[in-house]
Amino acid sequence: MELGVIPLCEKAVSTDPTWVAQFVRLLEDEAVESVWMPEHVIMAEDYEPLYEYSEDGRAPVAPDTMMPDPLHWLTFAAAHSDKLTLGTGVLVGPQHNAAIMAKRLATVDALSAGRLQVGIGIGWQKEEYAACGVPYSKRGARLDEMLDAMRTLWRDDPATFHGEFTRFDRVYCDTKPVQEGGVPFVIGGSSEAAARRAGTRGDGYFPYTIGPQDLALRVGTMRDAAQQCGRDPDSLPLTVWPHSYRPGGTFDLELVRDYAALGTQRLVVAAFEAGNTDMDSMRRFICDYQDRIIANV
Questions:
Q1: What percent of the chain has pLDDT over 70?
Q2: Superfamily of domain 2-296
Q3: Which of 26, 146, 235, 290 is the most exposed place for a label (fewest CB within 10 A)?
């Protein structure tokens, strides 16, 4: 079982270079496998309550929560680490241009010596899409096409792609990712559509606020979709953040064992669960989780 950590998203530390460098080194020193920086380009003060993981449609984060650009943050993290896997958790894919994002991801992957994994999903906030100048409709179709277009740019020289949202003819996209086959895409989202996308196009699956019973259904959907496409469902690792389903359940060993029984290969915790921003608190929290949970799953 691998351990991933979501960094703090707080104004006091998230873009403090000294703090971030120390945090990244701490993760690597304590044998944490990966770090996952979330993305929201903007958060609206008065948004339509479409957040699907709560009863009232409101997200559990304040609109002014600090969220640095994940790829820039991860590039900085790469410069202060040697082994740590660098993940986006998750990138709101359809808000980005496929060709530009292909170049950005390839560059981060090359400069980190092939350590990038891209958690990617469709997002939920209409106001964020409007601010990015992208229609809110057809988000799923946009993401599917984006994944196909980026892989085409990494694979073919010259590359040609004719889609509904992205078109190019005989173009070259350098730099290329270091990882064979391109940067892995870990599909985020707890919907049935997200699970199907993980099976048909993903290199892994990272659902959110989902319990073991519902996760079992989603894993079944993912595996069926993969098999129908001639893909090996066992090649698609599963990442789970227990706290997102049950706040306070981080150290619930039985809950974690239920996730593990479904094939979970990576558990994620959030740095805010340490209760403080100092490195000693971070280290105690991570070591405690490794000793009490990871070692006993």
A1: 100
A2: Luciferase-like domain (3.20.20.30)
A3: 235
